[in-house]
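A favour, since you know our structure tokens better than I do. It will help me judge whether the discrete encoding reads sensibly. The space below this message is yours for that.
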Amino acid sequence: MPLKNRLCLIKQIFCWQIFRWISVLFTALMVTSHSFAALSMEGIQVYQKNAVPSPKKRGSFAEAFRHYKSTDNLWDVVRSEFSLAHHDYNPAVQENIDWLLNDHDFLMHTAARSTPYLYFIHEQVKKRKLPIELVLLPIIESGYNPFIYSTAGAAGIWQIMPDTATGFGIKQDWWYDGRRDVLASTRAALDYLSYLFDFFDGNSLLAIAAYNSGEGAVMSAIRRNIREGKSTDFWSLPLPRETRTYVPRLLALAIIIANPERYPLHFPPVRNEPYLAQVDVGGQIDLKRAAIFAGLSLKKLQQLNPGFNRLVTHPNGPYKLVLPIENVERFMVHLANTSLSHHIDWTQYQIKSGDTLETLAKRFKTTSYALREINHLEKAQLKKGMKLVIPRTVTTVMNTAHSLDRQELEEPSTTTVVATAQETATKIARDEGKNFSTENMHSGDTLYMVRSHDSVEKIAEHFQLPAKTIYTANRLHSNSVLHPGDQLLIPTHLAQAGTAKATTVSEERDLRPGDTLYMIRPGDTVEKIAQKFKTTPGAIRVANALADDRIQEGEHLIVPTALAADSSLRSG
């Protein structure tokens, strides 16, 4: 081989070796960086069961959240990525623009409800190379309310029918309805839309129409027009009245969002970064306990996990919970510090003569189906002396089917005898050997997990409370030693209203000069708070991304007093 060729070959081999070394190093760094959280390109991080964040990883949570709050507004990104022809001057589209603008409150409520899910849905749409306008479809379908049902039986933000859900592998039973699960239903709905876009050779309007009325109805209308020698474009087809409104309404909404200078709506900003994480719990868990672990209200946890029909997750899975990324660290540490068998409160019952599944179901306010599934009973026949296990928190989350209108989510039924949040907190403390008392626990108090280098004085300064208050609440002495992982009861209800600072990362809000962080008191309503601070209920709802006017004693609200004069928010 000539010398020149040999030198060239040696150079190529050397370059290839350098490339291999860099690849190996890069792969190692990626594995190290993401061993705790599986890096996801789908708009959500997935955290594996039994994984406890290292101190270094814990610090990255706060840094990630700070980065999240500094990113672009996703609504600006969405409008820049619109690709459909919106048919601005079509009379049906213009009529729907007027209809939407006349219902300002509906658009604001819907935008607030979309906030946790928008980034995930945006990424899912992009992954399938579908028009970005489809992120607006749940506004038209359901007002982004995952708990809503139609009179025809469709459910969730995408209003999926039971048969369609089954065809796309969505689980539905007494415990869980995946049509309401935002992650599962979004993947299924967009898979269905991908199929429809292929079915209609990329004709967007026909595909969107078929999502509403079915591809059969659209094809029937096309065949009819062909027979009659008429055009087969969407605007010419004899489709159902609902579908003839559905498509132009989506286009009208896209026009409104694409032209903020013409239609200033002041949607609450949504960051162009993942907001949600999915945590693999590894087994069944009581949602009340999960909420305490995560530092969330039960209502907030249910809103992020609407697929569960009960206040306990499915005994056979899914075992994954959706949480804000900022709450994952706390949840995982709590989860790791308790046995999986303690994640749900079970009661044991020994069968007596005359017992049947039906009578037991009535006594324990559950169903015979649930008892069979929990105890793996193949037959309904019971034997004397046989022992059954029954979860004490199998309470129905949603027991009323909502029509496809603008009704809001009803409060979950709590008729079953279940542990209150205070009782559950007491039990957790007892299980983990902690010594604080919950006798005087108030709404809004905080359960704080002690970190390395923490002291009572530092914690008191963080929560703006006297150190003596924390010592007393937890029966501590001045020489008491704190250990990482210990839980402290922080009586944050004692903080002064209007000046109390956020107690956890989840309460770090974007306060503007002149705004107030207000702690909700007994008897408060959004309207009363608005009157007190001379602002409007609409302004408070937008500032706090509230889907409705329900608020909970002890929670904190931003009162946007700096916006009191903004007439565009006077929707109250």
The longest strand covers residues 276-280.
